[in-house]
Fold this protein.
Amino acid sequence: MSIDLVTTVLLGVLYATGFYLLMQRSLMQVILGFLVVGHAANLFLQAAGGPPGAPPFVGVVPQEDMADPLPQALALTAIVITFGLTTFLLALAYRAWVLLGHDEVQDDLEDRRVRRAEIAAEREEAG
């Protein structure tokens, strides 16, 4: 079982794009990033499952020629979980849009305080 170079590069690009989108401030971009990472995970599961085999009909196909159903079952489960979480995130983004009028994630006040404290500590250290 080996994954070819094209699949490996595609997985890297999908994961990089997905994580980049997850770190954005817009909730829609976060949702798109979540979807791209989910698709990358499904592609990884399918690629890790090895080459396609014969359908698993007992008594008709020899056991060593049968396809492994576990990666396919894991990918199907991941698709269902991704669908459920995506609908939740879309509802959350819609609610934020209705209440706030935008979908941008705001800075937390505590994050600002921590950043100001870090800047003050750097100034004391330098000066």
User: Anything to note?
Assistant: Residues 64 and 101 are 58 Å apart (CA to CA). The chain has one domain: 5-126.
